[in-house]
Design goal:
There is one protein chain. By secondary structure, this protein is of the alpha/beta class. It has one domain (about 5-185): NagB/RpiA/CoA transferase-like (Rossmann fold). It has helices at about 5-20, 25-40, 40-45, 60-70, 140-145; strands at about 50, 75-80, 85-90, 95-100, 105, 120-125, 130, 135, 155, 180, 185. Strands 3-2-1-6-9-10-11 form a seven-stranded mixed β-sheet. It has a two-stranded antiparallel sheet with strand order 4-5. Strands 7-8 form a two-stranded antiparallel sheet. The radius of gyration is 16 Å and the shape is globular.
């Protein structure tokens, strides 16, 4: 099988696994991961953070976003600009978010762009990942393009139950610095 076929098969297998979990389970298990993020030194020390806005059965991030805002951090969330291209836009409140493409909450176009060089800590989503910090997203490459050659500390959030033994990667895939699940925090760099 080709790399693309391997990725597609793993993505489908993971989505099928997640379908078996209720939203109540997702919220409960997400709280464990959220607490782990909020207790981490890298998060606490960061003044400027970037965090995805969770959607569907992804690890939930609303409490992380709310905590960061309440703590006075400068908070950026993704805004998809065009195919494969995203920017990080500042929010000052969760009320700054509105449904965008595919119903995913995002900031408005008139919000401030946060420069990549300013961001100290990034919270990155995945469909699945492995213990070496390789992640698989939804396949559009937004995060890999954005994170390429950045100095952002990249923490990926993943449920233990959907971790992969090995995620197939190409030279375009960006490896994460840390993996956080309900039970562990693996620092890779």
């Amino acid at each position: 099988m080709s790399l693309l076929e391997d990725k597609k098969a793993l993505r489908m297998e993971t989505v099928q696994k997640l379908a078996g979990y209720s939203m109540e389970w997702i919220r409960e298990e997400s709280r464990k991961i959220e607490r782990r993020v909020l207790a981490s030194e890298k998060y606490k020390q960061a003044e400027v953070i970037f965090c995805y806005v969770s959607f569907g059965k992804e690890v939930q991030t609303q409490k992380i976003l709310a905590d960061a805002l309440m703590s006075g951090k400068k908070v950026g969330v993704p805004l998809c600009m065009s195919k494969g291209i995203m920017e990080v836009r500042r929010i000052d409140s969760l009320d700054d978010l509105h449904p965008g493409a595919y119903g995913i909450l995002e900031p408005k176009l008139d919000t401030e762009v946060i420069k990549k060089e300013e961001i100290q800590y990034g919270i990155i989503p995945c469909v699945t990942c492995d213990h070496r910090g390789n992640r698989m997203g939804h396949g559009a490459g937004y995060y890999d393009r954005y994170l390429e050659n950045s100095k952002i500390w990249k923490t990926i959030l993943c449920f233990n139950e959907i971790m992969a033994e090995e995620v197939p990667v190409s030279e375009l895939d960006v490896t994460m610095d840390q993996v956080m699940t309900q039970t562990e925090s693996i620092i890779l760099s």
